[in-house]
């Protein structure tokens, strides 16, 4: 085998390395100078390819973990890209009432955060379909936890549907929506199904739930803590 390998190197293809005649642990490997130079010159690309293949294998064997590549090399939370989404909601608040998903009270301009229904640490993206305006103090309380699906998903979907209606009714709102394409509208299903023109309220809710619920359930199975908000009387808001 070694003889064939070395002969192939001499007659047909310049191989990256050949074997010496020694046996066992004394066997030597001779690297071709040209290949050494090529590897050194392209180290970044080669390591990138190795990383990509590793991520593909891990993602295929862990289908319930979204955005696995970003969990291997976590993004700084300061890199969240919410500016365009905030401008969109700010414009909506000027012309349409929006109710806080968790407090069930009107949101006021300038006194809210834009945050994720399913925690950012799990989805590792800033997709529009998972973002909502919410009370700043409640956002701190919710932190990295999952809200109860009911009744909060219904309120969340209601706000999303209100946004959807205005996107297709008002040119100014639609332009702000288009500004979200680069950072906040990467999901194919959201562009082709959820935000397409012509969905009824029921259709919109079904599309959103069909795509969000599996992600939400996956986060629960992986141990994300549930956030149970208590009202002033100490009763749970389920």
TrEMBL record:
GO terms for molecular function: endonuclease activity. Residues 107-147 form the HNH nuclease domain. InterPro entries: HNH_nuc. Keywords: Endonuclease, Hydrolase, Nuclease. CDD domains: HNHc (cd00085). Gene3D superfamilies: 1.10.30.50. This is HNH endonuclease. Signal peptide: none annotated. It comes from Blautia pseudococcoides. Pfam families: HNH_4.
């Amino acid at each position: 085998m070694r003889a064939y390998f070395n002969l192939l190197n001499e007659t047909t293809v310049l191989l990256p390395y050949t074997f010496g005649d020694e046996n066992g642990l004394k066997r030597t490997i001779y690297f071709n100078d040209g290949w050494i130079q090529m590897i050194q010159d392209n180290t970044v690309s080669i390591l990138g390819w190795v990383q990509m293949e590793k991520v593909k294998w891990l993602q295929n064997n862990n289908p319930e973990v979204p955005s696995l590549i970003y969990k291997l090399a976590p993004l700084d939370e300061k890199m969240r890209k919410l500016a365009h989404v905030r401008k969109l909601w700010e414009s909506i608040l000027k012309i349409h009432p929006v109710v806080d998903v968790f407090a069930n009270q009107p949101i006021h301009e300038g006194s809210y955060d834009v945050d994720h229904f399913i925690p950012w640490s799990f989805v590792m993206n800033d997709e529009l379909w998972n973002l909502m305006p919410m009370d700043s103090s409640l956002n701190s309380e919710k932190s990295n936890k999952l809200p109860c699906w009911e009744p909060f998903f219904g309120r969340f979907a209601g706000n999303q549907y209100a946004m959807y209606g205005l996107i297709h009714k008002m040119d100014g709102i639609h332009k702000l929506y288009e500004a979200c394409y680069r950072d906040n509208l990467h999901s194919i299903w959201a562009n082709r199904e959820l935000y397409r023109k012509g969905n009824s309220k029921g259709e919109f809710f079904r599309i959103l739930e069909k795509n969000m619920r599996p992600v939400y359930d996956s986060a629960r199975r992986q141990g994300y803590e549930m956030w149970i908000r208590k009202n002033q009387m100490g009763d749970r808001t389920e």
